Amino acid sequence: MSSSSAVLGLTTRALLSARATGPGRTSPISAGRALRLRLLQANRLPPSSPFTSTSQCSHSAEQRSPKTEMNQQIETNRDGVAAQALSMVVPGTFVIPPISQLPKPLGQKLRFLGSWFVMKTQESITNAALRFTSKPTIFKRAAFKPKRRVIIPTAKALHRSMAEALAAGDRHTISKICSKQLSIPLLASIDARPRGRRYGWELVKYTNKLFYPSIRSHRMAPISRDRNAPIVRQAVVAISSKQRRVEYDSAGQLIPGSEKEMDVVENVAIGCIVDPRSWEQREWRLIGTVKSTTYEGWNVEKEQLKAMLRAP
Question: Which pTM does this prediction carry?
Answer without folding.
Answer: 0.74
